[in-house]
Amino acid sequence: MRTIFITTAVVALSAAVIAGAHAQEVKSLRGKPSSDMILQALTPSGEPEVPVATGKVRRRGLSLSNDESEAPAPAPQAAQPAAQPVAAVAPQKAAPRALDLDIQFQFNSDQLTNDGKDVLDQLAAALKSDKLAAAKSVILEGHADAKGSASYNQALSFKRAQSARNYLAVRHGISAAKLKAVGKGSSEPANPNNPEDEVNRRVRVIVDL
Prior knowledge:
Blueprint: E1 3-6, H1 15-23, E2 27-29, H2 35-42, E3 97-101, E4 103-106, H3 114-127, E5 137-143, H4 150-172, E6 179-183, E7 202-208
Parallel strand pairs: 2-3, 5-6
Antiparallel strand pairs: 1-4, 3-7, 5-7
Helix pairs in contact: 2-3, 3-4
């Protein structure tokens, strides 16, 4: 039976967050990646280490003469202002993480194939891990190629994203409150040079931490 491939990416609930996620590099895992591979792709890298200042310590000059009269008198020190408290710096918010996964559906349908369910099973395991369980939102953003009418592609892309959302919520108990399905139709192709390429049929999934 012919199948249509679609991709998933974990997304935020607001338009501003989605725009921020699109500004980030979208990673892609083809085939059937493991939950560990998905987790690694969706987990923010560690914060860069702040280098420690290593400048030399300035010291007062010392006279080598035994005659104390030749030693220069210490210069008077200006009064130093009282130290001001340093304002606490708020931790930087992690940017949304985007990932493309191969999710298979029946031809011209929103029904998941067994292979499609297998990939969503691995995605669910990653989303329920300690590193991603506290994510604020997970949006499944459906995309289609340019075959067919714009209205048909829009409807099918949304239905497929909704099908993936329902599977994650019902099968794996992921909170439906933070899962959202979005249909993009063929408006944002992954391969603009070939709008009918199968890589354009995807559900981009983005995670907002």
